[in-house]
Every structure is written in C-alpha cells, then in structure tokens.
Specification:
- Helix content is 0%, strand content 57%.
- It has no helices and 14 strands.
- The strands form 3 sheets. Strands 4, 6, 7, 9, 12 and 14 form a 6-stranded antiparallel beta sheet that branches. Strands 5-8-13-10-11 form a 5-stranded antiparallel beta sheet, with no helix packed on it. Strands 1-2-3 form a 3-stranded antiparallel beta sheet, with no helix packed on it.
Length: 180
C-alpha cells in the first residue's frame, strides 16, 4: 500500500491519497483549496473605502477600531491549513493589533457557545502603502471547525496604544483561508 500525507500546519498530518497494493484507492482528496474573504466593518469608526480597485476597511490612528472576515465552512472541509490577512498601512511603523476568532454552529449561543481563540495584542511591522500578508493561523488553531459552521476573525487595532507607531490609517483588505 502507498499513502501520501501533508502537514496541516498545526502539528498534525492528513492523508490526502491512499492506494491499496491492488491499485484501488481509498482516499483521494483534491488537495488544498484557497478562498478569499473580504473585509467587513466591525465598529462605527471603521470606514469601508477603496483605492486602486481594491475595497478595504480603514481604521484611523489614535483610537481602537475593529474589522472582520467571516467564513461559512464548506461541506467538503476536512481541516484548516492556514489563514493569512492582507493589510496595508498609510504610514511606516508598527501596528498594535489583536486577532480574535470564533466558531459557531446551529444551536450555539452567539455570545458564548462554540469555540474561541486569539492572538494576544502584539505589533506587526508595516511599510507605507505596501500590501502585507500576515499569517494568523494561530488565532484559529483552537477552534473546533466542522462543515457548515460559521467562523469569524476580528482584527482589533489599538491605534492609540504607545506601541502603535504607524501614525496613519491601517486598512484590512481581507484574508486568504487555505483548507483541505
């Protein structure tokens, strides 16, 4: 027998192909799939805007604003491989950000059911007007995700925090989710 495995990025592996010695297959997955999740406004201070044909949620400097991406887990879902947000800043410096994630299913309490995970407040070095891809898979590793469940990722920018040195807007464009 011959099997092909791939790493899921969370200290586990997954069988994506298994062939018996007689040539018949048992598992034949299509490999990883990538989905784009557009940014959504999180609070009244965030502004939905656009520039050069890309829309984004703009979070101003000096205050705390939030933006989101949401994903409905598809019925062919097996595991989450990675989650990467795409941001761009109006200035060069550090963005002080917290990422919080939640998963909810039919019948879960919206305020406390399901599972939650996060990345504690930390800084991310950004360069003015460049697109930056930030791997935030750690914010969702603790979620229990199943087909037809809802997942939400919140980016909370603490623009008034002393460690936030951008001195300008932070824009969440969206996120890439890779799953198998």
């Amino acid at each position: 027998d011959v099997a092909t495995f791939q790493s899921t990025g969370s200290n586990t592996v997954q069988c994506i192909n298994y062939m018996r010695a007689d040539g018949t297959g048992i598992v034949a997955a299509g490999g990883n799939k990538t989905v784009w999740l557009p940014a959504l406004i999180g609070d009244a201070g965030g502004i939905l805007s656009e520039s050069n044909n890309f829309s984004f949620v703009q979070m101003t400097d000096g205050v705390t604003h939030t933006a989101y991406v949401n994903w409905g887990i598809p019925d062919d879902f097996t595991s989450l491989t990675s989650l990467t947000v795409v941001v761009t800043a109006g200035g060069t410096g550090d963005a002080l950000v917290t990422f919080s994630a939640s998963a909810r299913n039919d019948g879960d309490n919206r305020a406390g059911g399901g599972t939650d995970d996060s990345i504690a407040e930390t800084t991310y070095a950004l360069t003015s007007n460049l697109y930056d891809y930030i791997d935030v898979t750690a914010a969702v590793n603790g979620l229990t995700l199943n087909a037809l469940e809802m997942m939400s990722l919140k980016l909370s920018r603490n623009g008034g925090g002393g460690a936030d040195t951008i001195g300008n807007v932070l824009r969440l464009v969206g996120a890439f989710v890779v799953y198998s």
